[in-house]
């Protein structure tokens, strides 16, 4: 496979983006046994990026530092490093400056975000979403599993029962979604499993799911335009 392009992809965090990752090609990483689907990235390696990463059985990366931190959700197989092995369903968050030597003896697929965590973060964490209890959401049919966050940024799993509708709302600091199972929808379309969405700061929608779905969602982490604070004296 060809090496990935170094050009930015969906890099403007002020813009809405929708990516069907099932239609993306796998491209070679610097390690021959590791491939990636490039969803969102600021540029080449070592810059902000969101990707699906596939480790072949027996694949391993040399020890490296995550200067901007990393977080990932294990979608298939098991991801391992010096701290343990994390099978499908685990959410792992490693702060800026952390280092490890990842491997996948049996192979794995992860959704991973790199170089985007607050430099003040210090704690690593791992959540087994298969065993963590769900909490009642804000509407009937919606369940939430908080995973982690820092100050105004929050990450969670959200489970929608069939026929669940959420009220129209704005997202302060934006929202990012990856559909793990089922189909999510809103006024702008339907998003089946494997879809990644980014809704920028103060975007508005009324999501629902006719069939039911499970999503990974991050809120409050996208930039706020300086012009937003100037309108009607907001932020003053």
Give structural attributes:
single chain; 236 residues; mainly beta; Jelly Rolls; 2 domains; eight-stranded antiparallel β-sheet; globular
Would you state the CATH class of the largest domain?
Mainly Beta
Mean pLDDT: 91
Instruction: Give the helices and strands as they follow along the chain.
Output: EEEEEEEEEEEEEEEEEEEEEEEEH
**What ranges have pLDDT less than 50 throughout 5 or more consecutive residues?**
none
Number of helices: 1
| CATH 2nd-level architecture of the largest domain | Sandwich
* Total strand segments: 24
Number of structural domains: 2
Q: What name does CATH use for the topology of the largest domain?
A: Jelly Rolls
Q: Which percent band covers the strand fraction?
A: over 45%
Rg calc: 18 Å
The rough form would be described as globular
Structural summary, described in words:
It is a single chain. The model has no long low-confidence stretch (mean pLDDT 91). Strands 1, 14, 15, 16, 19, 20, 21 and 24 form an eight-stranded antiparallel beta sheet that branches. Strands 2, 3, 4, 7, 8, 9, 12 and 13 form an eight-stranded antiparallel beta sheet that branches. The chain is mainly beta and 236 residues long. The protein has one helix at residues 226-230, and strands at 17-20, 27-28, 34-41, 49-55, 59-60, 64-66, 70-81, 84-87, 90-94, 98-100, 103-104, 108-114, 125-128, 135-136, 142-150, 153-160, 164-165, 169-171, 175-186, 189-192, 195-199, 203-205, 208-209, 213-219. The protein is built from one helix and 24 strands. It folds into two domains: 24-127, Sandwich (Jelly Rolls), CATH 2.60.120; 133-219, Jelly Rolls.
């Amino acid at each position: 496979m060809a090496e990935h392009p170094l050009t930015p992809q969906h890099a403007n965090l002020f813009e809405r983006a929708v990516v069907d990752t099932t239609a993306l090609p796998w491209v070679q990483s610097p390690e021959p046994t590791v491939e990636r689907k490039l969803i969102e990235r600021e540029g080449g390696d070592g810059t902000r990026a969101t990707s699906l990463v596939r480790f072949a059985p027996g694949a391993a990366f040399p020890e490296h530092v995550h200067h901007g931190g990393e977080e990932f959700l294990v979608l298939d197989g098991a991801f391992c490093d010096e701290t343990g092995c994390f099978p499908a369903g685990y959410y792992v968050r490693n702060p800026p400056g952390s280092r490890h030597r990842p491997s996948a003896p049996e192979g794995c697929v992860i959704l991973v975000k790199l170089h985007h965590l607050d430099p003040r973060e210090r704690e690593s964490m791992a959540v087994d979403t298969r065993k963590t209890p769900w909490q009642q959401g804000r509407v009937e049919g919606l369940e939430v599993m908080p995973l982690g966050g820092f100050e105004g940024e929050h990450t969670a799993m959200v489970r929608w029962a069939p026929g669940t509708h959420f009220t129209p709302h704005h997202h302060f600091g934006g929202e990012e979604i990856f559909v793990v199972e089922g189909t999510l929808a809103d006024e702008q379309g339907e998003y089946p499993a494997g879809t990644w969405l980014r809704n920028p700061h103060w975007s508005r929608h009324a999501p629902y799911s006719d069939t039911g779905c499970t999503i990974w969602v991050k809120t409050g982490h996208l930039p706020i335009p300086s012009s937003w604070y100037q309108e009607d004296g907001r932020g003053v």
